[in-house]
Amino acid sequence: MGSDAHYPEEKPVRLVEVADFEIDPAVVTNQEFSHFVSSTGYVTTSERALNPCWQPGMPSEYYVAGSLVFHMLSHPVKLTDPGQWWRFVPGAFWKHPEGPDSTLTGRELHPVVHISYIDAQAFAQWAGKALPTEAQWEYAANLAQSDRATAHIWDGEFPYRNEYSQTAPFTVPAHSRSEPPSGLHNMLGNVWEWTCDRFLTPTTQKNSCCAPKNDNPMPVLRVLKGGSHLCADNYCLRYRPAARIGNDENYASSHVGFRCIDAGASRRSALPQSRQSLALCPHLT
To answer: Which residues pair with 93 in a beta bridge?
Structure first.
């Protein structure tokens, strides 16, 4: 695990033992999350107004229900302040990814986004699954390293020119058009993916390039892996297995989703066949 050649929080390179596990081929889609919500009535964190007593120090406009949405700029800017392209949009959540006037039409098979760690855990528990550990996720992503050439990332000069799309959605379907050699779809790029591990690092991490500053003084940070469609060669080289960032458990945005692993519990028959997991045997590879 890890890398000594990139960002400080990835150090050091180290050996980690991972037992056999099964991981889903793709991240959870809007269609699948919709089925979960219909079955349970679950309300995501982005649909709930923040309580100032629970999260002091946040800007006052953040205490309404909503989420962070990426907005493409029209001109080059200095890439030192992610707040230039991130906006907190009241009414933005998984069903309305860009705000109240947006819909999921045509995006049913795209990754569900605006999902916090809390939300991802709720889905996984309902599905009889779990979120992967960082080591499990990185092991699987190393198997998918050959897929990096086709990773869905920013194509052009970030954050103002994208050859893939000039307007939302910037994501692509969770399953690739063709079967990747690893059998694992879009582990690198497309959306960041939650893991269940706490974000711990011996170094002091600077502000993340992938989200605006979080002023919550005592957040519980969890590890996000894999990069997203906003990774660009001129800006953020985090679409690699070892790359990692830490974010508040309540954090949600338009480029964060998740995939599950088999927790050993019986699967729900209501889940579509696409959710069946891929068995990985680390001790055999």
So the answer is: 96
* 159 upstream amide cis, omega within 30 of 0: yes
Which bin fits 183, alpha (ψ -120 to 50), beta or left (φ > 0)? left
- Count of CA atoms in the C-beta half-sphere (13 A) of 268: 14
Let me know: does 187 contact 226? Beta carbons within 8 Å: yes
Q: What angle do CA 212, 219, 72 make, to 5 degrees?
A: 15
The two structure tokens encoding residue 272:
């579509």
One pLDDT digit (tens) per residue for the chain, 285 residues: 999 999 999 999 999 999 999 999 999 999 999 999 999 999 999 999 876 666 666 677 667 899 999 999 999 999 999 999 999 999 999 999 999 999 999 999 999 999 999 999 999 999 999 999 999 999 999 988 776 677 899 999 999 999 999 999 999 999 998 888 889 999 999 999 999 999 986 544 445 566 555 555 557 899 999 999 999 989 989 999 999 999 999 999 999 999 999 976 434 434 444 445 666 655 433
| Pair 118, 50: CB distance under 8 Å | no
Closest C-alpha to 239, from 254, 247, 253, 228? 228
| pTM of the model as a whole | 0.86
Name the DSSP letter for residue 205: P
Rounded CA-CA distance 99/91 in Å is: 5
* C-alpha closest to that of 114 among 89, 91, 93, 84: 93
The CA distance from 110 to 152, in Å, is 12
Q: How far is CA 164 from CA 108, 144, 155, in A?
A: 19, 22, 6
